[in-house]
Write a structure and sequence with these properties.
Elements (H helix, E strand, L loop, with lengths): L1 E5 L2 H21 L6 E5 L6 H12 L8 E5 L1 E3 L10 H8 L12 E2 L8 H14 L5 E5 L20 E4 L2 H7 L13 E4 L2 H5 L3 E6 L5 H9 L17 E6 L8 H15 L1
Parallel strand pairs: 1-10, 2-3, 2-6, 3-5, 6-9, 9-10
Antiparallel strand pairs: 4-8, 7-8
Length: 266
């Protein structure tokens, strides 16, 4: 696992966006005919990355013409036009700001499906049809959950229906007028196995409230209690975090990753 520590949220976002842009450009320059397949999250963590990527695209520095995206999750029972659906979030914060993104290349789970299990199976099959995901970006919750894979979700799980914990509904209630009962009780989500099957995984972690999760993910054992800890078993996993999120790492761990990244830049 690689841990990249940046001074603050803005620098974390810039580093992650530059990394993703570099991967897309390298894919194109390699002459690869298949599209670059990019996994994407919602939430506050990736907003800075989306702004940076959109700015590159608008400036003609980065093309999304040959990029296919798959989003992590979607609330079950929310239509696209609902301002808290993840379909709405992604278009409002990212896709609507890209000048050459083909709408047919955008894949988001359908929260209004009549057959959730079939929808999830089709999503997994579509990912496979593209040869898998090249890079999956994600964020984590304060309890270390990745996508809507709450604590104790199987680390080999695939895309499926997830029951949301009371804590998650309380945290997300800030987007629903402060009422946890208005937050859907279920969501459709890629599984931990879906994410770790990707060739590369990049997870963003920022803020003091994520410090405990970061410490468990990096220094703790691989555990269903901290589902993001599955990244310890991935050959190309990167955690990009800010200083504020490092508050509970041991000094030796913190210094180790700073030293390794410094040598990478030399």
């Amino acid at each position: 696992m690689r841990v990249v520590i940046q001074d603050d949220y803005e620098k974390m976002s810039d580093w992650a966006a530059d990394h993703i842009a570099g991967k897309i450009r390298a894919h194109v320059e390699s002459g690869e005919t298949r599209p670059f397949v990019l996994g994407l999250p919602t939430g506050s963590s990736p907003i800075g990355v989306y702004k940076r990527l959109a700015a590159m695209n608008q400036a003609g520095e980065l093309s999304f013409k040959n990029v296919v995206t798959f989003n992590m999750d979607e609330y079950l029972g929310l239509p696209h036009e609902h301002d808290q659906s993840y379909w709405y979030f992604m278009h409002d914060n990212f896709f609507d700001h890209l000048v050459d993104m083909d709408p047919d290349n955008i894949n988001i789970l359908n929260g209004m499906t009549d057959d959730p299990e079939k929808e999830c199976a089709m999503y997994e099959e579509k990912i496979r049809s593209y040869g898998g995901i090249d890079l999956f970006m994600g964020g984590i919750g304060c309890d270390g959950h990745l996508a809507f894979n709450e604590p104790y979700t199987s680390l080999t799980s695939r895309t499926g229906v997830r029951d949301l914990t009371t804590d998650t509904r309380i945290v997300n209630s800030r987007f629903f007028g402060g009422d946890p009962e208005k937050v859907p009780a279920q969501a459709l989500s890629v599984g931990i196995g879906t994410v770790t099957d990707s060739k590369e995984v990049l997870v963003l972690i920022s803020g003091h409230n994520k410090a405990t999760a970061l410490a468990h993910v990096v220094e703790g054992g691989v555990s269903q209690k901290w589902t993001c800890s599955a990244l310890q078993m991935h050959n190309d996993a990167i955690i990009c975090c800010d200083e504020a999120a490092c508050g509970e790492l041991t000094v030796d761990t913190y210094k180790y990753f700073l030293d390794i990244e410094r040598k990478e830049r030399l």
